[in-house]
Amino acid sequence: MHRLIEGYRRFRAERWPTERDRYEKLALYGQRPETLVIGCSDSRVDPQTVFGAGPGELFVVRNVAAIVPPYETGTGHHGTSAALEYGVRVLEVKRIVVLGHAQCGGVRAIVEGAPDSAADFIKPWLQLAAPALQAIPEGLDHAEVIHRCEHEVVRLSMSNLLSFPWIKDAVDAGRLEIEGFSFGVANGALQRFDGERFVSVD
Ligand SMILES: [Zn+2]
């Protein structure tokens, strides 16, 4: 049997009985998540798992490298910006969290260039993160450049969030806060950006 169907059956047998009330209330009253997460599509970095959250708690948008594009309303198909607009203007979340991570293939491609087999969309998408790369000092070894870039992309996304006028207004009014994190896939440890650097979360 398909692995996903087996997983669904486990969910119905084990989780549904204990979470049924919660799902039914969420269906009846709608979702009111307080946190919007911008995460990477990477299969190892599930925001709900990392933050120990349940259904209804996190409004999540995931894309390659957890990049927030700058505010622009041209003719492009702005999936991430649409999710931000819904989360901030309709759901009125109280917090936006940018969740980057170690061993990010998207960040590696920012540093090394996108694979030739993925040039249609990945290349222009990762171009958005060029300022993150420019923020890294010269003279570091390759692994350190990648590690620094993982953090710089989180900072760039946090900064780009403020280019959305309704996000800036909400932050200025104290209705919304922006936080940045980085998750270590190999050690399961979370770091939080404290305004200057990334520090371990105890
Ligand atoms: Zn990633």
Describe this structure as you would to a colleague.
Keywords: Lyase, Metal-binding, Zinc. It holds the Pfam family Pro_CA. This protein has helices spanning about 5-30, 45-50, 80-90, 105-110, 120-125, 130-135, 140-160, 165-170; strands at about 35-40, 60-65, 95-100, 175-185, 190-195, 200. By secondary structure, it is α/β, with parallel strands linked by helices. It has 2 domains: about 1-30, no CATH class; about 30-200, Beta-carbonic Anhydrase, Chain A. Zinc ion (ZN) binds near residues 40, 42, 65 and 106.
Lay out the secondary structure.
Blueprint: H1 3-29, E1 35-40, H2 47-50, E2 58-63, H3 79-90, E3 95-101, H4 105-112, H5 122-127, H6 130-134, H7 142-161, H8 165-172, E4 177-183, E5 190-193, E6 198-200
Parallel strand pairs: 1-2, 1-3, 3-4
Antiparallel strand pairs: 4-5, 5-6
The structure holds zinc ion.
Zinc ion binds next to helix 4.
EC number: 4.2.1.1
Protein name: carbonic anhydrase
Pfam family, one: Pro_CA
